[in-house]
Amino acid sequence: MAGKRHILPGFKLTLGYTILYLSIIVLIPFSGLLLKTFAGGWEHFFKTITEPRVVASYYVSFGISLAAALVNGFFGVIAAWVLARYEFPGRKILDAIVDLPFALPTAVAGIALTTIYARNGMIGSLLEPYGIKVAYTQLGIFVALTFIGLPFVVRTVQPVIQDLSVDVEEAAATLGANRWQTFTRVIFPALLPSILTGITLAYGRAVGEFGSVVFISGNLPFKTEITPLLIITKLEQYDYTGAAALGFVMLVASLFILLISNGLQAWDNKRKGIA
Question: Domain 42-272 belongs to what topology?
Fold first, then answer.
């Protein structure tokens, strides 16, 4: 069967450039990481990724990232709903502020959060009398990861809310549904795939975060030390094979998260009848 004819020519040429570009930018560096990871053998690899200090960093990186992503899933939907459905003074400014974590250097975010939540900071000084410590604790890591992950949920859910016709809600109300029934049976099922996708993207972003966390965490071994920091530590110790091993673990985790995200998007397209 003859291939589908396109108005614009150049499929073979553009495909070749695409494969070449991806090979140079993505595949070759990943191949180098893979070769360096196992340069010391399987025994060194498993010893490195199962060290008690490393395992403790997994709990911090993956556990707190998941908690932050779930919280962003809840508040991100609320923020997306407000921005998509209501007109009010300053809405465009608020909409732009949501993207601030995208544009702000992560190191700047980390310094700002540490300054605000330190014991003598603007917010930290108010929490100190109640015995609540944010900076240099796991709570501080949670705050930083929530900060950098919120836009992923908002920007994923907001277009879906904008495409969701208000007439559907009015039709549900006409048929006798109350507000809770309208939300749980009409709105939420339509938003669920995008919510899950946003949470997954926020989780993937948080797992690999370094700049904003390294300042506010305090970097205490077995307590507030994240896996990306251990990679930097091993590089400073000239343990390149060990750093590559930890990088490989983070790479596999990131690919798994991306597969989940792509699967959710495919499920959403299938549900909508999009090929």
Answer: MetI-like fold (1.10.3720)
